[in-house]
Model the fold of this input.
Amino acid sequence: MVKIRIFEPASKLRSIDLLENYFGIKHNRKKFYRIAPDWLNLKEEVENIVIKFAKKRYDFCFDIVFYDVTTLYFETFEEDELRKNGFSKDNKSQQPQILMGLIVSKEGFPVAYDIFAGNTFEGHTILPLITGFIQKHSVNSFTVVADAAMISQTNIEEQ
Done:
């Protein structure tokens, strides 16, 4: 499912149709929602495949990456450990949300991501994700482009 959404971004339900159309893989909606939590175990494998692809097809060399955060809200009013009320970019502050931090190449190709509790300040997301990315890929030097919320004095001093 993750691979098809990278290949052709679409809703989850549309992705189920695309899997069948492109690859003959049939999923029904109930099974999809039952197995979805298991996909978290595939994160590292998918990111490795994406990096390999980006290096081969786009000459990705870690010289410059772009980082940003978005909020994703849920159609519920009940919070849990991850879904928390917080500043909502969608004006849905009464609904639980998560934050997703995304690293993309200069071509806009996604190369890494992480999710954070919905009440996390977006400026607190950059260091864990970028530091993990540097360690995982043994990056010696590169430039990160991000908006002003990420580039606080504290973040500069910690890095």
